[in-house]
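Long-time lurker, finally posting.

We've been working with Solute carrier family 43 member 3 (Sus scrofa) and I want a structural starting point before designing mutants. I don't trust myself to interpret raw outputs, so I'm hoping someone here can both generate the structure tokens and explain anything notable. Sequence follows.
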Amino acid sequence: MQGASLPLRMATLLTGLLECIGFAGVLFGWASLVFIFKTERYFESLCEPNATLMGNATGPAGGRGWRGDPFSLPDCRAQDEQFSLIFTVASFMNNFMTFPTGFIFDRFKTTVTRLLAIFLYTSATLIIAFTSADSAMLLFLAMPMLTVGGILFLITNLQVGNLFGRHRSTIITLYNGAFDSSSAVFLIIKLLYEWGVDLRSSFIFISVCSAWHVGRTFLLMPRGHIPYPLPPNYSYGLCSRDGPREEGKTATESQKLEPQSKASLSPKEEISGPGQPQEPRSFWSCVFSRRYCWHLVWLSVIQLWHYLFIGTFNSLLTILARGDQALVSTYTNAFAITQFFGVLCAPWNGLLMDRLKQKYQEEARRKSASVVALSSAVPSLALTSLLCLGFALCASVPVLPLQYVTFILQVVSRSFLYGGNAAFLTLAFPSEHFGKLFGLVMALSAVVSLLQFPIFTLSKGPLKNDPFYVNVMLVLLTLLTFVHPFLVYRECRRQDRPQEVA
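Top reply, 14 upvotes:
Generated this for you. Predicted structure of Solute carrier family 43 member 3:
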């Protein structure tokens, strides 16, 4: 390789992967952390005097576990609502802040963005470390800060894929999978807690790791952006001498590499083939198109299912386990372990994208390049909807052992969801609007995700812990997501038919 040496690039890749696995998406291990918070009696003061927390088989209320109708269990609704609200706010920030954080990254580049991420992340972990049951309200501040810091880590690491040319898509999806897998960090904290390591010690250790983030920022990451395609003699980090000036120069060089071979083009660049002039489309015409609106529905509904499941996970398990905290702990651990395997599921989506990319290059001679590229997104969209439907059906059946299947379908579905989202936007809309369209769809889907709290309140309140009707409604809503791949498929057939006749 020219420019930066292969060992430096591999060091950047591997340390970035470790950073995403260990820090970026820890929010999604919320269920493991809630278990600790309940043990530490966070928000227990909100419980009514006659309400009792779900105890284990030898709980304090008479020495026996609860045996009876699981939907009439005595529990602390106010406590569960507080935990659900914290997760709702944090998960909202996880998506909604994608748009402004992307702007920060574009405007202020890598070093400034990462220093901001380190500040937010370290502040959040220190706040959690020094909270107690008396100061539990600080979690409303700490968890959103932790989430935004993690998103900034992910955004700055995704550009590492630009260092590896043809494997760019696979590496990007690998990083997204690592983001999902980092939810296992809270499982490790839970296991350490059960072995006698207190919560404060674990989060202080995570805070100390900020020194590692700072070192990586200045030694293994660029000060600006990693250009794509990569220009000759590109250097960064340890090898960079002139800093921003040199990177600005190499970015200019990368723009002069046109025309490129088709094999090195990104998905966004592959849409328009040679000899096929593409009419310019405005940003707002893309936003108000039927294609974009249905994609927003597809993403919002599936994401709502995932957020609702994670946010209410502890409460759901407590009901199904009839208050047996040993069972709740076992299933919480199993769920967190399956989340770790997101890093293994996500690359399959990237490999599928690369395969479809080759198929597009073969068929582009006979068909419109844009039609073939858009058609290649249909299987990913439909498969993701199918996986979510299976996950929703299993989650709706109140049988505890079946939840193992739910865990597997949930992690695979979520791994495909976000990779498929980005892939579709690159194929279906002009490349110059990709950043804005991606940020907007994530922000709008975040607004829809706020519904998880009123849904949870409805289930715990008027429905008296019986989520059956809520689940039926959401399953029917999930069927609506199949409309999106169907409409895209029909649109491709309609556009391709005149060419076949010709």
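Before you design anything, note these points.
The radius of gyration is 24 Å.
The CA atoms of residues 251 and 387 lie 40 Å apart.
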